[in-house]
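Appendix B, example 12.
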Amino acid sequence: MTDKTAILTAAALALVLGVASSGLQAEPYHGDGHLLGTPEDLSWGPVGSMGDGAEIAIIEGNLSEEAPFTIRIRLEDGYEIRPHVHPAYERVTVLDGTLHFAHGESFDPDATQALPVGGYAIMSPGDPMFGYADGETVIQLHGTGPWGIEYLDPQDDPRN
């Protein structure tokens, strides 16, 4: 990480995504020049709002602000993304593994579409979605904050 960019605090992540206070740091990018990096430059940490089996790396932005952000989510093999909604458009690209994904209010693995490396999905605000990872799967997500997740069934929310 460069000295020129500010560090996104773990507190902001905890507020929006429920990320545990694990020292996770990210370099927010605010349009000042170029931001270049490799996968080895990313700092991964837990995603409190997704529970065990999911990790997050913040590439740019502050998820609690009304501003663009880019994140990566790493899911272990078999990880289930329980039915949920987001407050804004979600744009996902699969970078590694296979994400099985669908629109709907009930978790149904047979209703999903396999999205291999290079696959993508765009979901509207408030539209319920679910899925699961086939093999270790890395997705890149970008949108505009403030960001959050609301599970349709509160029992699916690891923050409860």
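The longest helix spans residues 10-17. The CA atoms of residues 66 and 145 lie 5 Å apart.
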